[in-house]
Amino acid sequence: MAREDVPELLRLMEGVVTYERGSGFRLTEAELLNRGFGERPEFGAFVADRGDGRLAGMAVHYEIPFMHTLHPLLMMKWLFVDPDQRGQGVGRRLMQRMARHAVDTGHQKFSWFVLKDNAAARAFYGGIGATPDPDWDRWLLGAEAIGALTAGG
Question: Does Acyltransferase count among this protein's keywords (predicted)?
Answer without folding.
Answer: yes
